[in-house]
Design a protein that fits this description.
Layout lengths: L1 H23 L8 E2 L5 E6 L6 E5 L5 E5 L2 E5 L2 E3 L1 E2 L4 E5 L7 E9 L2 E3 L7 E4 L2 E8 L16 E9 L4 E9 L12 E5 L8 H4 L3 H10 L7 E5 L31 H15 L9 E6 L1 H12 L6 E5 L5 H5 L5 H18 L3 E7 L5 H13 L5 E5 L5 H11 L6
Parallel strand pairs: 15-16, 15-17, 17-18, 18-19, 19-20
Antiparallel strand pairs: 1-2, 2-8, 3-6, 3-9, 4-5, 7-8, 9-10, 9-12, 11-12, 13-14, 14-16
Length: about 400
């Protein structure tokens, strides 16, 4: 009986070991491994591969021809095969603090890192991510601070004649008190949806950390879907479409500008927000920057704070009406003049100096100068990238509701 018991225990241990190996994929591989000096090692087990590369925005960009022209795209680096078919690459120098994305290329096929569960979708691409500590990486990381809540909800849009999905951040302590809060409407770009700012933009982490540091006033942040032809992000809607720049091919019932009142009504009916101009802000990146400029001009006595990130507020509006550019420009200029006459606390424009929209942003500000429109301009390095937009959010939010 004793021998039978020992045999049974050994058999159970063997089965358990086999099950764990099947579940976890054998010996664990650490990838990426961030070393104390902030160099990073990437590893991938691919014993039958001939060539393994890693590509990501931690590598120097390479000018690349695309169907849309020549753009700087992330570079590549080759991994070397080691023992057991494990390929490896270590960055030759420490990486600056930042959130980085990457993927592997195995014999020409892009794959995600199976050792890294941290992934983010941008348009139709899913990449792995990692954060190098320091500044600003710590701001984008989950720290031991009080945390706000992030919810995805559906709201009725009578203007668009459907229910739509929205993402809302409430600050730490919101659920446990009766306070009212200012509200910040934060809009995504052409390739995004209601998930973009919370995932790629790290909005919750930025707000939690800045509120904890006393740099940001507690506020509610509302992140809607700016593509009015879609109800929600891919996979979250009953409308089948592939994620793409521009959001999809279905004809929209109405514009973002004309339907934005439905969003405000939902927020002010369901959340404890202060319902006056002094406690409303709106900002966005790229297409969302254009929306922010257009919405704040269309409702010129609604927002005290406006942020336009990597988007020309006038030139883009002009481009929307190629048949009558002059008339369109004149109408928008009149709206800006009314907006300034009504007054606002902050109109903040930001753009990277290698952004493909850089010159049109400069041209737009010259037009604003001609009519005496007051704004603050923040120029950064690099281009039309989330690295800049996270920085802009972390700088814009502390200026709100002071």
């Amino acid at each position: 009986m004793k021998r039978l018991t020992i045999l049974t225990v050994m058999l159970l241990m063997a089965v358990t070991s086999f099950s764990q190996q099947a579940l976890w994929g054998g010996q664990a591989i650490v990838s990426p491994e961030i070393h104390e000096n902030n160099t990073v090692t990437f590893r991938l087990r691919a014993p039958k591969a001939v060539k393994v590369e890693v590509t990501g925005d931690f590598l120097p960009p390479q000018p690349t021809e695309t169907p849309f022209g020549k753009y700087d795209l992330p570079g590549t680096a080759q991994l070397k095969e080691g023992e057991g078919g494990v390929w490896e690459y270590t960055t030759p120098a420490p990486l600056a603090s930042e959130l980085y994305s990457y993927t592997f290329i195995v014999d020409g096929l892009r794959i995600n890192d199976p050792a890294n569960v941290s992934m983010i979708r941008d348009v139709a691409s899913v990449t792995n991510v990692f954060i190098i500590p320091g500044n600003p990486g710590d701001l984008y990381s989950i720290k031991d601070v009080k945390h706000g809540s992030v919810v995805r909800r559906w709201y009725d849009s009578p203007t668009l004649k459907e229910q739509r999905r929205i993402t809302i951040y409430t600050p730490p302590g919101y659920e446990g008190n009766n306070q009212t809060y200012p509200v910040f409407y934060l809009l995504h770009g052409s390739g995004g949806d209601e998930e973009a700012w919370i995932a790629l933009g790290r909005t919750a982490q930025i707000m939690d950390n800045l509120i904890d540091q006393g740099k940001v006033k507690p506020m509610i942040v509302v992140m809607p879907n700016g593509h009015t032809q879609n109800t929600a992000a891919p996979g979250e809607t009953n409308r089948n479409y592939l994620p793409a720049m521009g959001g999809g091919s279905r004809q929209a019932v109405a514009s973002m500008e004309d339907s934005f009142g439905d969003i405000i009504k939902f927020v002010e009916s369901n959340y404890r927000v202060k319902k006056d101009k002094a406690n409303r802000a709106i900002a966005g990146l790229s297409m969302g920057g254009m929306h922010s400029a257009a919405i704040s001009a269309q409702y010129p006595n609604t927002y005290n704070y406006v942020g336009v990130f990597s988007a020309p507020p006038i030139a883009t509006m002009m481009a929307r009406n190629n048949e009558d550019v002059a008339k369109n420009t004149e109408e928008f200029v009149k709206k800006l003049q009314t907006q300034q006459k009504n007054g606002f606390n902050l109109y903040w424009i930001a753009c990277g100096d290698t952004d493909f929209l850089y010159q049109s942003v400069i041209d737009s500000m010259k037009k604003m100068d001609e009519i005496g429109f007051k704004y603050i301009y923040r120029e950064s390095g690099e281009g039309h990238i989330w690295k800049n937009w996270r920085i802009y959010l972390s700088e814009f939010a502390p200026m709100l509701f002071k």
